[in-house]
Structures are given as C-alpha cells and as structure tokens.
Description:
By secondary structure, the protein is α/β, with parallel strands linked by helices. Helix content is 32%, strand content 12%. Helix 8 links the parallel strand 4 and strand 5. Helix 5 packs across helix 13, helix 7 packs parallel to helix 8 and helix 12 packs parallel to helix 13. The longest helix has 18 residues. It holds the Pfam family Arginase. One of its GO terms (biological process) is putrescine biosynthetic process from arginine, via agmatine. GO terms for molecular function: agmatinase activity; metal ion binding. Belongs to the arginase family. Agmatinase subfamily.
Amino acid sequence: MYAKLKTFITVSAVLSNCRAHKPGVGIDFDHAAQSIFDDQHSNQPLDKTWLEKYGAQIDHPFSGPLSFSHLPYFKCLENENESFDIAILGMPFDTAVTYRPGARFGPYAIRSGSRRQRDLRSYTLAWSNNPYVMGQKIIDCGDIPVSPFDNALAVDQMEVAYSTLLNRSPAREEGVQPITSLLAKDGLEHPRIVSLGGDHTIVLPILRSLYKVYGPISVIHFDAHLDTWAIYPGQTTEQSRVTHGTFFYLAQQEGLIANNSIHGGIRCKLGGIEDLSNDESVGFQVISTDDIDDFGIPKIISMIRQRIGDSPVYLSLDIDVIDPGLAPATGTPEAGGWTTRELKRIIRGLAGLNFVGADIVEVAPAYDNAEITGIAAADFVHDFLSMFMSKEPPKKQAHHGRL
C-alpha cells in the first residue's frame, strides 16, 4: 500500500512539499509519501462525524434512490399502515399495445425525469404554489408487480392494487379542508393517486376502482387517439378485447364513465365518420389538435370546464398528445400534436374541478432522446399535484423582473 501511495502521490502534496523546502533543495518524494500515509492512518480520533460537519445526507439531482421527485418511497401495498393523501403509483404494464411496446419502462423513465424536482424547490411562477408544502402528504408508493404473461391477471392486479390504496385512510393535516368526501358515495375522505403507466389500458382497472367509491366518472382525456373503439382486428377472445384502444368503450359498457367526458388533442386516422358517432355514444366530445389554432387556449379550457361541470373527474394524459418532435418516446406517435407549453397552460386552466385522480401513460423510453419525453412527463405530474391543490386556475401575478 505504501508503494502505491508513493507512486500516486498527489500534485497538491508535492507542491506542499516544495514549499517546505528552501530554494534549490531537492524534493524528497519518499518523505512526502510517508507523511501523507502517516496522517491518513494516525490513531487520532475523528474530529467530527459527517452529520456534525456537513449535516443531512441530501441527495443530488443525479444521486440517491429513484423515487419521484426524491419523495419518501414506500411499498404501500405491503405496508398497510402507511397513510398518505396523494400517492405516486407505477403501473408497468404494456402487453395490450397495438404498435410499439416498451411502456412498461415508463414509470422508471418518469421518475428519472423528475430527478431535478424536489419538495424544497417546487414553487413555480406559473402556479404560484409549491404542492409539497400545502398540507397534504405525498409519497411514492412504488410499482404494482403486474404479470407480464397474463393480461387478465394483470388487469385484476391493477384493480386490486388501486382499490387497496384508494381505500387507505388519508393522512391529512389538522385544519385542511376535505376534498373527496364531498364526492364519495360513502361520505369519507379518500386519497388520490397519480398513476405512471404503462400503456393506456391501465385506465380500465382504475375506472373500475374509482366507480366503487364515486359512481360514474367524467374523464378528461388528452390523447392523439380516441381509445373508444369497440374492437380491433384479430380480437377473438373476451380478454383480447381489452387493449389500449378499446378500454373507454369497455368502461362505458360497464357503466363506469359519465356521458359528459371529453377528449383533447385528437388527430389520429379513423376508419370513417362512424368512429366519431361511436365515440359520441360512449359519452365523449372531441377537441381536435387543430382546434387550438382555431379557438385558442382560453376557449379550449372553457370548453372542457363547461363539459365537465361539477362531476367527479379523472384526468388521463397520453404522452402522444404532444407532438413527437417534443416527446418521441411513445408507442403510437402521430405528427402534428400540441406543444408541451400549450398543454401545461390548459392543465393550469382546469384547476378547481373535482379531480379524483390522474395518470400519465404511454411513455416508452426506448424511443427517447436525451430523456426529453421522461422530463416532460415528470413535469406534467408536477402540474397534476399543483392542480390537485388549487381551488381555481392561477391568476397572473406581478413578480420582480416580470411584466
């Protein structure tokens, strides 16, 4: 060890040794190396521990275990005494896609995209709030261990997991006003869950769980695709009907959703005008991707709010609603989508509606570049949290250096 230390003696130690000698006197490398070795292996007690000298072991944005925004992480499905008001829950399911697979890695990618977010630095000018300091306990509940081999089993696992957490007693601070008890059939307060997909099929078991608590749910659905088709070619069994393009139709057949739901950002290819007639029968109104150019963001917000009213509402955001130039990591990309900034503005305009849950789905990181999709998805989740906490859309405020 001493020989290695002699060989790799640091430049700083050499320079220090130089200063200790008179001009013209040679450097004694053996003596310098031995001094460093002796200093590092002295028997003197440690002056201060890490905690005493530097404080808490705080993770950098690029370090530490992977949880959403460095939130406390619990395996909530097995830790049955863990309470919360809002849970981040991963659903790594992607075996019901019709094109590119890979969204099972979406929860990981979204959490990774959130590394620069944290509770102590989450105030934004856009929202004028920090959702982590507003009296509600937010934690990361990990991922549901869904089966990658049996879709029927996986859908049941997601429903059981979601229902388990939805019926957990919340951990509200004293004095915080109730939110969901005013909407629930049992009159009790229920926590809210932000789900990280996974392909869009995850919404079917989620709606089944929410229906048990709230009855029929209105849905705000941001997507390039309708997802209300009754059937896809090749569906020859009952389970094969359950895909990421049919789940809303099946939910309507089961009576899970209300007739005042709405899409935003639709631009997919259709079989014909009959697809829109079917979509209307499922209970949806369509806002196309081009409507944002024709009517503007304020009108889009107004249309959504008017459609939803005071109903319990669930927000489902398929990342492919964003143009693939800005969010390429998705299984069914469609050109001509909304920008990240436009959708963030729309989400802010929805604050104050009776949200009972939300998700972001179809993030497939194998198709990403420089994590741009994962970062965008994580920022949308931050918007969901601020949206949950806000009684109305944020108003423009004067800030230092801002017009």
